[in-house]
Amino acid sequence: MIIKTQKEIPSSEITDLTVFKARRRFIKTVLASVVGATMPVWADNNKSRTLLPNNALVPTPIELVKNYTNYYEFTLNKEDSTKLAQNFVTDPWSLEISGEVEKAGIYHLEDILRQQTLEERIYRFRCVEAWSMVVPWMGFSLGNILKMAKPLSTAQFVKFTAIYQPETMPNQRNNVMLQWPYVEGLRIDEAMHPLTMLAVGMYGDTLPKQNGAPLRLVVPWKYGFKSIKAIVKIELLKKAPITTWNKSAPNEYGFYANVNPAVTHPRWSQNSERQLGSGFFTARRQTELFNGYSEQVADLYRDMDLRHFF
Ligand SMILES: Nc1nc2c(c(=O)[nH]1)N[C@H]1C(S)=C(S)[C@@H](COP(=O)(O)O)O[C@H]1N2
Ligand SMILES: [Mo]
C-alpha cells in the first residue's frame, strides 16, 4: 500500500524551533538498517531535518539511554532489558491503522518509511519516576500518517497497541506485571500536534530493541509511560481508550499524564527530577510544566483543570 508523501510541518507550527538540515549519515544509517541497503529512494532523499529547541539541549550520553530502560514486557529491571530484548523479532513489521477513518489499512513499516521524511528531534524525556534525559530521536510526526488514513469527524481519540509476542517477552509469557499487550492513548488534537512523533531511530541510528524498535511513540510533554514502544496498531476512536497504566492504578496514572510539577504523584513529588548522566552531586532539575513545552502545547488544555485531568 502506498502512502502519499507528506508535507513538512509548516514553519508557523514550529515557531520557536530552529530547523536544521540533518547530516546525510543519519538517513543512510537508519534506512540501511530499517529498510535494507537497496533503497535508492532514501539514499537520494536529503530531506531529513533536525528540530532543535532554541535552548540547544545537550543529549544524554547514549550508553545511559540504551542501558537504563523501562520495558515491562521483558523485566522490571532497567538494566536487564538491554540483553533480554535481543531475541525480540522486529522484522518484518506491519502497522494497522483502523477505526474512525476513511482509509483503514495494514502497512509494512518499510512502505511507511519510504514515504516519510525522517527528522531528528532533540527532546526532553521525563519519566513519572522523577528521572529525565534528553534524547535525539529520528522519526516523523504522528499526524503525517493519521492524515493519510483520513480521520472521520467522529475520531476523538487515538489508541495505540504494542506487540504481543510472548515467545520473546517473558512477562507476557508468564502473564505478570501488567495486562498485555501494553495500550496507550491520546486525544486526537494531542496526536495531531506537530511535536508528537513516531520514532524509528535515535542518536543517528536505528532504535535499539530495548528502546522500542522498530516503531515507538514519543510525546515529549507527557510522562514517559505514554510513549509506547513496539507499536503494531493505531486505532482512531470515538471514546477514550482504556490504557494500561491508568487501568492498573488510576489514582497514580491519569489518562493525560502531562508533566506537571504541581500535581504530586502518591509516591513521588513531581517537583524536580534526577537528570541521567549528571554527576551525583549535581542539583536536581526543577521540573517544568509540560516538561518545558508549554509554549507549544498549553493551548491544548486551556479550559481544563489539570489537577482533575492529571
Ligand atoms: N510497550 C512498552 N512501552 C513502554 C514501556 C513498556 O514497558 N512497554 N515503558 C514506558 C515507560 S514507563 C517509559 S519511562 C518509557 C521509557 O523509554 P526508554 O526505555 O526508551 O527510556 O517507555 C514507555 N513505553
Ligand atoms: Mo516511566
Structural features, described:
The structure is a single chain. 43% of the residues are buried. The protein has helices at residues 24-34, 40-43, 62-67, 81-84, 109-115, 142-148, 170-173, 188-192, 244-248, 294-297; strands spanning 17-21, 49-53, 94-99, 105-108, 119-126, 131-141, 157-162, 183-187, 197-202, 205-206, 216-218, 231-237, 272-275, 285-286. The protein has 10 helices and 14 strands. It has one domain: Sulfite Oxidase, Chain A, domain 2 (Alpha-Beta Complex), CATH 3.90.420. Strands 1, 2, 5, 6, 9, 10, 11, 13 and 14 form a 9-stranded mixed beta sheet that branches. It has a 5-stranded mixed beta sheet with strand order 4-3-12-7-8. By secondary structure, it is an alpha+beta fold. The structure holds the ligand Nc1nc2c(c(=O)[nH]1)N[C@H]1C(S)=C(S)[C@@H](COP(=O)(O)O)O[C@H]1N2 and molybdenum atom (MO). The ligand Nc1nc2c(c(=O)[nH]1)N[C@H]1C(S)=C(S)[C@@H](COP(=O)(O)O)O[C@H]1N2 binds at residues 69-73, 127, 162, 182, 211-212, 224-225, 227-230.
Describe the largest sheet.
9 strands, mixed
Give Rg in angstroms.
Answer: 18 Å
CATH architecture: Alpha-Beta Complex
Structural class: alpha+beta
Element layout with pairings:
Elements lengths: L16 E5 L2 H11 L5 H4 L5 E5 L8 H6 L13 H4 L9 E6 L5 E4 H7 L3 E8 L4 E11 H7 L8 E6 L7 H4 L9 E5 H5 L4 E6 L2 E2 L9 E3 L12 E7 L6 H5 L23 E4 L9 E2 L7 H4 L13
Parallel strand pairs: 2-5, 3-12, 6-13
Antiparallel strand pairs: 1-2, 3-4, 5-6, 6-9, 7-8, 7-12, 9-10, 9-11, 13-14
This protein binds the ligand Nc1nc2c(c(=O)[nH]1)N[C@H]1C(S)=C(S)[C@@H](COP(=O)(O)O)O[C@H]1N2 and molybdenum atom.
